Automatic annotation (TrEMBL):
It comes from Microdochium bolleyi. It comes from the Eukaryota. Keywords: Methyltransferase, Nucleus, S-adenosyl-L-methionine, Transferase, tRNA processing. This is tRNA (adenine(58)-N(1))-methyltransferase catalytic subunit TRM61. One of its GO terms (cellular component) is nucleus. CDD domains: AdoMet_MTases.
Length: 499
């Protein structure tokens, strides 16, 4: 059984050799391949260490912890690395002076021999395509989560299907696609395992992708080929067809690749699955590219062509907090929360001004200058917090204070690309046509096919009943030897003739 990818099944804890995403803040994640080590590495006695603005983290403290765990920073033994090197001949300082940790608790972490620092922590997250998109080393523009989640849904990427993707670029779409189609490893019981067939013509990007696919344990789910798809198409090794169910093209000129994505012809094998409709999406930033692509799509028999633009807008939901006593808190309005707070602040400012000018507190102050404040209404707490509303009581949780409001994020990504979708109907052979004609003999029907309107149905029923009645009467007449069955010598009903 192939070892599972951390993107598919990360297991309950971090393990040596796998990718972990170190979460520093909401928009700052650092990918780390966790390496165990027995000796010093790169001047650190603890082995491999990552350095962040929240402190240093030896890999040994990150291995074997539950995914999502908070890990405290460590005091690292920098050995020779910590000593300041003399400037070289050019007068330049030696590189990489490690920041010395300050006060430290003598508290060993889970990793033997490593001491926890006084402050600083990170969270260790399991890789997902969404987090990878945020943290991957960019070689190109990438497809972001709002776009690829919509694309994968529209091209019907689901467990077991096979996707063609070009170009691979930085692999952002590749990781999302592989998770969407995963339904087991090829060596497991499942026969039709989903797969991504990725193509990239830039050598350096192709090699980096290969390296990452290997490191993420996705080699049996992603088949990457170094290829110029405009000229060489999408067949894989030895001219084998990927038998793709769907296609995603993120190329500068998708219309140049489309002639290779047709049904089989006499002299050409198709890279597409023959017995199903194939779904396609192209991703182009300019409308001129879309126009050219749509033109070629129409010529090649693609149907249901539709263009969509995803305009992603994030809403931040937060508590609106107002107060002069919260100068360092994000999301607060730095104005007085109420009259009492404004007066308290004015008093503080005046007090400071008096001190500054060397006057004794209150000396010389005219009592008439004092403002008249209803002290009962507000109480200024020791830390300057004004507690005069129910929600501002001592027990109130800081994150529950203030009105709940929402704001759109400051920076809105309005345009990434135009998504053009299309469908190519399934391949249709003479045998399939014959089988369909057998089931639905169009033009040679003996009965009625499909629905008829009410009047026609009623007339048919009347005719049928009249026919039955006639048969009965004729049978009775032949039995009695008489001319009619009714005995009243009335003639048998005749079929009405039209004029
Ligand atoms: C915008 S990037 C793709 C980004 C990718 N979708 C992602 O999410 O990371 C476009 C890629 O197409 C590749 N490319 C351009 N022309 C190509 C061609 N004719 N055949 C194969 N790849 C090509 C480029 O080298 C580039 O890496």
């Amino acid at each position: 059984m192939a070892r599972s990818s951390p993107f598919i099944d990360p297991g309950p804890r971090t393990t040596e050799g796998t990718l972990a995403l170190v979460h520093l803040s909401r928009d700052n994640l650092q990918p780390v391949y966790l390496r165990g080590s027995t000796g010093a590495v790169d001047g650190y006695a603890e082995g491999n260490v990552i350095n962040t603005r929240f402190g240093s983290f030896p890999h040994s403290t990150l291995i074997g912890v539950p995914w999502g765990a908070q890990v405290r920073a460590s005091i690292v033994d920098t050995g020779s690395r910590g000593r300041k090197k003399k400037p070289d001949g050019n007068g330049e300082a030696a590189p990489e002076d490690m920041t010395e940790s300050t006060a430290a608790e003598e508290e060993p972490t889970a990793a033997a021999g490593v001491k926890t620092a006084a402050s600083g922590f990170v969270h260790v997250l399991a890789p997902t395509p969404e987090l990878w998109t945020m943290s991957l080393p960019h070689r190109t523009q990438v497809v972001y989560t709002p776009d690829y989640s919509y694309i994968l849904h529209r091209i019907r990427a689901r467990p077991g299907v096979r996707i063609i993707e070009a170009g691979a670029g930085s692999g952002s779409f590749t990781h999302a696609a592989v998770r969407a189609v995963f339904n087991g490893h090829p060596d497991s019981e499942s026969k039709d395992t989903g797969k991504v067939f990725s193509f990239e013509f830039d050598k350096a990007r192709f090699e980096k992708m290969q390296e990452e696919i290997e490191a993420h344990n996705l080699r049996d789910l992603v088949h990457i080929t170094h290829r110029d798809v405009y000229n060489e198409g999408f067949l894989v090794k030895d001219g084998e067809s990927p038998e793709a169910d769907c296609i995603f093209l993120d190329l500068p000129a998708p219309w140049k690749a489309l002639p290779h994505l047709t049904r089989a012809s006499q002299n050409r094998k198709s890279p597409l699955r023959a017995d199903r409709s194939v779904y396609l999406c192209t991703f182009s930033p300019c409308i001129e590219q879309v126009t050219k692509t749509v033109e070629v799509m129409r010529q090649l028999g693609w149907m249901d062509i539709e263009m969509v633009e995803v305009a992603h807008k994030r809403f931040n939901v937060m508590r609106e907090r107002v107060g002069l006593n919260m100068p360092t808190e994000r999301g607060t309005n730095q104005t007085a929360g109420n009259v009492a707070e404004a007066l308290a602040r004015l008093r503080e400012v005046e007090e400071k001004a008096r001190e500054f000018h060397g006057r004794a507190q209150g000396a010389g102050a005219n009592e008439d200058d004092e403002m008249d404040v209803d002290e009962a209404k507000a109480e200024v707490t020791a830390n300057g917090q004004v507690a005069n509303e129910d929600q501002d009581g001592d027990d109130a949780k800081p994150w529950m204070l203030g009105r709940l409001i929402h704001r759109t994020e400051a920076e809105i990504k309005t345009h990434t690309s135009y998504l053009t979708f299309a469908v190519l109907p399934q391949e249709w052979t003479a045998e399939q046509e014959a089988a369909a004609f057998e089931s639905w003999p169009c033009g040679q029907e003996k009965g009625v096919i499909g629905s008829l309107d009410k009047a026609v149905r009623k007339q048919e029923k009347r005719d049928m009943l009249a026919g039955k009645k006639r048969k009965k009467e004729m049978a009775a007449a032949s039995k009695n030897g008489s001319g009619t069955a009714s005995g009243n010598n009335s003639p048998a009903p005749k079929k009405s003739k039209s004029n």
